[in-house]
Amino acid sequence: LSAINSKRSSGINAEYGGDNNVAVPTHFYKAMVAPSRSGGYHLECYVMPNEEIRDDLPISSFLVPKFSIEKGAGYFIFEFIADSQYRTINGRPNSDYIS
Q: Does this model's pTM top 0.90?
């Protein structure tokens, strides 16, 4: 994703290989929303390289802001949820949360 690779301003990076020159993504993303028991939502966003990752590396080291996934993917994620509805973002309290 562009947030990971500063050589490009937007878009998803890919490497090409094989007999048919198939695009293989350099990174994968995962974004998750879970409802909070006390109202609002929890959001976590990750970007991981498409390569072997050391077992001792904590998954929290791959947390990224939501906008970096949106910029790299070229579309909005969870656009039906206002940012002010997230109680936490990547495990941290959201200062814009409105209960």
A: no
